[in-house]
Amino acid sequence: MRSQDARQYAAATERNREPILEILLKVLPHRGTILEIASGTGEHAVYFADKFKDCVWLPTDVNPQARASITAWTEHYKCTNVYPPLELDVTEPVWIVENQTASGLLNNSPIVAIVNINMIHISPWAACLGLMALAGRILPVGGILYLYGPFKVGGEHTAVSNAAFDEYLRAQNREWGAIPSPK
Hints:
It is built from six helices and six strands; from the N terminus they run H-E-H-E-H-H-E-H-E-E-E-H. It has 183 residues and is of the alpha/beta class.
């Protein structure tokens, strides 16, 4: 039975959280702030934060309903190492996490990694470029930018379901997942 609060659910989260966690445990630092871009429902944030007890998870999303869901999940699990979600639009030239106010929010726990799950393939190319630019500006030397999504290998989808999903997404918005052609 689904809850009556603001928690949203994404079926893919239960399918992919363990394989993602397996990699995150190998590559993410075990201290500092982990900035999650486009946190969506917040299910990943609370699940991963529980596994990284000495880190603080900083979820973000541009969508107010997603931020309400993140807050509801955090409250439901009584997470003490998840910051309140921030509104963040990756296509903006300067992000809230770059200003002094945000620095104060981080309680002297610098951002040491960025996690981005299932965003760049359902966003305009400008979102990917913004994410890369931010990572270059705020991550320390050796910082980690972790991306998860249905990527192609050698120009080919790795699963039939990914190809179908890509086709579906592009039918919704031609800019999603599209890499601009050279001019």
